[in-house]
TrEMBL record, chain A:
<feature type="region of interest" description="Disordered">
    <location>
        <begin position="796"/>
        <end position="815"/>
    </location>
</feature>
<dbReference type="GO" id="GO:0005737">
    <property type="term" value="C:cytoplasm"/>
</dbReference>
<dbReference type="InterPro" id="IPR050344">
    <property type="entry name" value="Peptidase_M1_aminopeptidases"/>
</dbReference>
<keyword id="KW-0031">Aminopeptidase</keyword>
<feature type="domain" description="Peptidase M1 membrane alanine aminopeptidase">
    <location>
        <begin position="376"/>
        <end position="583"/>
    </location>
</feature>
<dbReference type="GO" id="GO:0070006">
    <property type="term" value="F:metalloaminopeptidase activity"/>
</dbReference>
<dbReference type="Pfam" id="PF01433">
    <property type="entry name" value="Peptidase_M1"/>
</dbReference>
<dbReference type="InterPro" id="IPR014782">
    <property type="entry name" value="Peptidase_M1_dom"/>
</dbReference>
<protein>
    <submittedName>
        <fullName>Aminopeptidase</fullName>
    </submittedName>
</protein>
Automatic annotation (TrEMBL), chain B:
<dbReference type="Pfam" id="PF20420">
    <property type="entry name" value="DUF6702"/>
</dbReference>
<protein>
    <recommendedName>
        <fullName>Orphan protein</fullName>
    </recommendedName>
</protein>
<keyword id="KW-0732">Signal</keyword>
<feature type="signal peptide">
    <location>
        <begin position="1"/>
        <end position="18"/>
    </location>
</feature>
<dbReference type="InterPro" id="IPR046525">
    <property type="entry name" value="DUF6702"/>
</dbReference>
Amino acid sequence: MKKISLTLSAFVLPLAISSAAMASSVEQTKGSYVDKFRQLDEALPTPNVYRSAAGEPGENYWQQRVNYDIDVKLDEKKRRITGSQSIEYKNNSPHTLKYLWLQLDQNIFKSDSIAETTKTFKSTLNSLPAQKPAKLSLGELRRQQFMSDNELGYTISGVKDDNGKELRVTVVDTLMRIDLNEPLKPGKEAEFSMNFAFNIVEEDAVGARSGYEHFEEDGNDIFLLAQWFPRLAAYTDYEAWTNKPFLGSGEFTLEFGDYDVEITVPADHIVSATGKLDNASKVLTRTQRNRLEKAETSKRPVFIVTEEEALENEKEGTDKTKTWHFKAENVRDFAWASSRKFMWDAKGYQQGGDVQPLVMAMSFFPKEGGDLWKKYSTEAVVHTMEVYSKYSFDYPYPVAQSVNGPVGGMEYPMITFNGPRTKLQDDGTRTYSQAEKRFLLGVVIHEVGHIYFPMIVNSDERQWTWMDEGLNSFLDGVAGREWDPTIPWGVEPRDIVSYMKSENQVPVMTQSDSVLRLGPNAYTKPAAALNILREVILGRDLFDFAFKEYAQRWKYKRPTPADFFRTMEEASGVDLDWFWRGWFYTTDHVDISLDKVYQLRLDTKNPDIDYSRLRDIEADKPTSLFVERNRAEGKKTWVEKNTDVTDFYDENDRFTVTNKERNSYNKFLKGLEPWERKTLDRALEEDKNYYVMEFSNLGGLVMPILLELTYEDGTTEERYIPAEIWRRNYKNVQKLIVTDKNKPLVSVTVDPRWETADVDVENNNYPRRIIPSRIEVFKKEKSKAKVSRDIMQDIKTELKTDEKKDEKDDGEEQQ
Amino acid sequence: MRFLLVIVCLLVAAPSMAHQLKSSVTTVLFNKRTSNIELMHRFYLHDTEHAVGKLFEGKVDIISNKVDQQRFAKYVESHVALKTLSGETLKLNSVGAQVDGKFFWVYQEAAIPKGIKGIKMSNGALRDLWPSQVNMVNVEGKGKIKTLNFSQDDTWLEARFEQN
C-alpha cells in the first residue's frame, strides 16, 4: 500500500515541475487560457551563424574531423582486444582547444562506473519472519559473477603526440581528457597515438551492444566488436564537448572521419567490418574473390563462404592469424565482427547515380541463422536502401551488411548486428516461426535504416534517442509496408494510445537516460507522430518534401531537434509549433469529444412561412400523458360536449397570421439594403441545413478535427478542420457546419479511421453509440463463429512446422 | 549492526535476447454495460512465441494452434490476480484468447463488486521468465485512468479511485 503512493509521487513530481516551468509563457495565472499555439522560438535555441532559423546549417557551420589509423588484434582464447591507434584531429571550430575529450565506452563495465554504481534495485522487501521472498534473477547473478571474474574496461597506455612526447591523460568515468602539449588553434590539426586493450564482455551475460557469444556444442565464438577503441567525443557549436557519461541508454555522439583499420584474427575467421576490404587478395581465396565478382550482378545473393565451408571451418581452430585491412571514408564510427562460424553471402545493389552506383549488400551468419538468413537478410538490406534513398539520399557507402550474433539489433556505419535465429528441431531440420521471420525483416530494415539515421544524418544520440529511433521507426514502417503490407508493421496511431493515456510517461524531449520507458517514448510515439504528420496534417507531398530536405541538409552533418522542427515547418510551409509542442514537449494525449450537435433553421421573416413552421413544431411535441389518459378513459371534454358554443378562436389558433404581421414583414423587406435583400433571398431559396457542433478537448493535445458526416440519404462526407480551431480556447469550441437542403445530417463521427491516436472513441460519435469493449466483441464473435468448430477432431491435428504452415490455419482469427 | 534478513528467491531466467520487446499492456476496464471488470492483456506475438518455447515442451505454435493459444492463456491467467482494497480475492473467469495482427490477447473478467473503491492487482505474466519484462496496466472506467507498472520485483500494486 505504501509502495504505490511512493511510486506515484515520484512520477508526479517531475511533471509538476515541468508544467510549472511552462506556465511562464504558455499558461497564465489569470483566466484559463493556455497558449497551445505559442511559437517555439523562445524555447528553441537562438538561431546563429552555425544553425539558421530555417533549420539549415548556417553560413559558418563547422564540425570537427577525426581520422583513425588502427591496428587491432583479437586474442580468441583470452577474448581480449589489444590495439594501437594514431589519430588526426582537425579543429574546424573557431575556438582554440587546450585539451581533447575521448569516449571510453568500455569503462561502463567497470565496477565503479556511474552506470554500474547507480543501478537501482526495486523490490518489495519484507524482513524475516515474513514468508514472502524477494526475487533475484539468475541472469542478474550471472552478470555479477561475470563482472567480478573479469577485469573490464579499458587499459590505456602510451598516449603520445606526433613527436613521441607523452600526453597527460585524466579519466573521468567513461570519458578521458588528453591535455595537448600545444594548444590547438582553429583550422589546425593535432596528431597523437595510444595503445589500448580490454577484455570482451560476454553479450548474453552482461547485455551490451557488442561482445562475444559462445556456442557450447561446437566450442566456437562469434565476436561482435563495437565501442572498441577510444573515440573522440563530439565537440559541437551547441554544447562544446559532450560530457554526458555513457549510462547505457543514450548512445553515441561522434565525429566524421576516415578510417584505416587492420584487424588481426585467427586465420580461419571471416571478418565483416565498416568499410571496404582493401586486401582481398591476401585474405580471400581466388574462388571467394570470383564469387564476389559474380555477386555484383547476380539477381539473388551468391555465397562467398558456403554453409558447407563454414561447417568445415568451425570443426577445428588454428593458431595462425590473418590480418584483414579495411578502409572507410567519411564515417562516424567503425565496428566489426569475426568468427569461423560465418557463412557469407552477397548481392550487388545497382543503385545507379553518381554517388555510389554499386553497393555490395552482404550478410554474415552461422548455421543457426539457417534458411531465414539465406533467403531474406541480404534481400532486406537491398530493399532498405531502395526505399530509404527515395526519402533521403543515395546510399553513399560501398557496402551494407547484416551480421548475425548475440546482439538483438544494433547499427554502425555500413554494418549492422541482427539477432533472429532459426530453431533446431529433433529431426535435425531448422525451422522458424512467422514472428521470427517478421522480426528478421523488421530488424534488418530498421538497423540498415540507421545507416542513414543517425550514421549519416548524425544526430546526437546521447541526448535524443528519438531523433534517430523515432525517425527511423517511422521510415522502417514505410519500407516494411513496401515489402509486404499484410505484415503488421506497428507505429500506427492506434499502437500508441494505451501508452499515451497512461500516467506513466515523460515528454519525448527528455534526455535518453532519464526516459522512463524508452520503447514507447523514443520509438513508437515519435514514429506515430510523424505518421500522423504525414498522413493527416501535412499530406504526403508536403511531408516527403520537407523530410527529404531535412535529410539532405544534414547529410554528414549534426542536426539538433530544433533543426528538425524548423526544417519540417519551413520546408512544408505549415506552422507546426503547436504539433512539436504538444507531441514532443508534453505528455498530453488526444481525446476530442463531440459533445452536442444543434440543428439551426433560418427564419424567413415571412410570417406566412414562419408561423406555420412554428405551428408544426408545436404539433410535433408529444401530447400530454394526462390528456391521453383522460381520452383513454373515455372522458369527454366540455368543448366536445358543447359543440354548439364556438367563437373566433376555435377557427384561428395562436399561429394565425394577420395583415399586421404581413405589413411589418413588408416594412422589414423595404428597410433592407440591396445586398442584404439579395443575401436573404438566396439563403431562403437554398434553404440549407445549419448545424452547430460542440467539441471539447479532453486530452489536452490540440489536433485537427476529422469529421465524417453521414446524411439521411446514406451518403457520407469527410471534413477536415485544422488544429488552429483550438487557438483561442483549447478546451471547448463550436463549429457551424452548413449542408445542402437535400443533405440533412443523421450522424457525425470524429476521426472515424483512427488516424489521430484519439484515446477514447466512445465520445467521437453523435448521436452516441455503444462502442463494445474488446471482450464484448470477442464474446459475440465467439458465439457466432466458433461453435461450428469440431474441436474433438481438430485437437488430433498434428503440429506442422511453421515453414510449411498452411496459411488458412490462422485465417479464422482474421475474419 | 544488524541487518534485516530477507528471504531471496532465485528466478531461473534464460539469458534475455535484446530484441524481444518484453512488455505487455493490460486494460482493466470497469464496464458498466456488462457490470464486469474486464481484463484485456495485450502481448507482442513475438514475445509470446519465445515464451511458449520456454514454458512448454516440444513443438509449440502460438500463431496457428488453438491448443497452444489456450495453454498460453492459462499460463497468463495463473499469473494475474485481483483483490479488493481490503484484500478479498476477486475471482477472474477466463474468457478466451486471440491473435490480432502483431498482438496476442488474453481476456478475463470478474463481476464488479458493489461500492468498490479501488483494486489491488498482481500481474506476473512472463516476469518469471524474463526479469526485464514490464507489464503496464491501465485501469479505466473509474474516473481518471490509473496506471500500474509491474517491473523488476513488483508483486502487488494498487489503484484507488477518486470517484465511484
